[in-house]
């Protein structure tokens, strides 16, 4: 960022710490209500259904129809319990990470004296780089280098086998510290930016264009290739599998003709035939599309010099330009968070039904949809900063491009889902 | 993404309805999502006896995917209206994507079960 022409006081950074507190409280309340309150009730229902099924199984007078009915009742009760427990835990973990992210970012910057903020010895038009991406990348590299041991240590912590050793998480922790330092410094550089001195490319092929915009497009280009690897792997194995659908549609001479059904079960076999199982994926698709629209509305509002508050009931949600932008961004954050919650609920149901990562079908499904979910989550972390900035310094027609460039990434995540959803859920 | 020039269909829609292209793009995306979910969920076209075959589902999914992809890239990501260099940048990996889809996705059937040992992970480590 080339221009730091707006002084940011420590109290502004403490605003991020206050927001962190709000997120932590919301997470705890949601966990208490869904993950404990409702989930415990559902667990009691599940226990009753389980006992009823086991009692009926041992009763010689029970007909197979009754047994079948009780089995399904038990299965439904189990999935219902999982829905609330997983949703509660996911919200708690996700909002805790939001709180940690905002809290550390705000606190680290607030620790510096007021004189250190917002001063820049360079002229407005002078180009100078930022060390933050390098620090951030170094942190990611260290985190990933330590990740295999980190997973082993996490398994031990969750009583999934093995013994916990602090040395196993050390490298990843150092990496995470570098990541947070890079992010905090990035915030420090970007928050005072009010739109003057955006760096312009001076040579082909992006001559005359904003460097940040060109950068995000080059980044998206690399992301397209990442998702293409998942998709081509999936296409390879998927066209080779004799799924029930392929068997039923096959004709004499086809590879799958005459093969017994139940040979291969994909995630879509478990999801697409029932409204209840298809619903999380479908809602997620709508949530991403709506979130793409809300971020467009945030940008449109920021860029509109003559914005006026609506006169209908929406005036309560969009009372003035600053709060309208903030609320559109909050809506985007909530829709993205809903996506993650529903995704993990759906995964928990699939795992409960025996579809885990141990099979080739499970492996490609969880890796591809998990990589997409990770992109959504990273986007949500960036969104937190945008919400913080919109609530403090604010966005307008001069610095609204911050929303625009992040929006490009967010739309790409939506675009990737346009391919993943039909391929993994519907086909 | 950004300030969209109101020309052509964008201007026509804005003049006729008072709503901008983003709003209509949003509605089109919602409609087609509903359409693709419906195409898979129903076994017959509602109100008819026409069976929805596997081939029809493929057609619907690919067709809807292209429409939705265009809607997001052209209007939400603003490739329609931005300098051509961004479209070229976005399309640059397509060559590699096609190579991967062809080279891995649609050929090389032994990739499913006969991967050479140097490109299979150490599963013992992964499950430790």
Structural commentary:
The complex is a heterodimer of chains A (427) and B (128). Chain A has helices at 10-58, 64-110, 132-145, 147-157, 166-190, 211-240, 244-249, 267-271, 275-303, 321-352, 360-391, 401-426. By secondary structure, chain A is an all-alpha fold. Chain A has three domains: 1-118; 130-191; 200-427, Cytochrome c oxidase, subunit III, four-helix bundle (Four Helix Bundle (Hemerythrin (Met), subunit A)), CATH 1.20.120. The two termini of chain A are 45 Å apart. Residues 122-127 of chain A have low confidence and may be disordered. By secondary structure, chain B is an all-alpha fold. Chain B has a domain at 8-96. Chain B is built from six helices and no strands. Chain B has helices at residues 8-17, 21-41, 54-76, 84-91, 94-105, 123-126. At the A-B interface, helix 6, helix 7, helix 9 and helix 12 of A face helix 2, helix 3, helix 4 and helix 5 of B.
Structural class designation of chain B: mainly alpha
Strand content of chain B: under 5%
Helix content of chain B: 55-70%
SSE class of chain A: mainly alpha
- At the fourth level of CATH, the homologous superfamily of the largest domain in chain A is Cytochrome c oxidase, subunit III, four-helix bundle
Overall radius of gyration of chain B: 21 Å
Our estimate of the beta-strand percent of chain A is: under 5%
CATH fold annotation of the largest domain in chain A: Four Helix Bundle (Hemerythrin (Met), subunit A)
What pattern of helices and strands is seen along the backbone of chain A?
HHHHHHHHHHHH
Using CB atoms under 8 Å apart, which protein chain pair has the greatest interface? A-B, 59 and 51 residues
Percent helix range of chain A: over 70%
Q: What profile does the largest beta sheet of chain A have? A: none
Number of helices of chain A: 12
Indicate the radius of gyration of chain A in whole angstroms: 25 Å
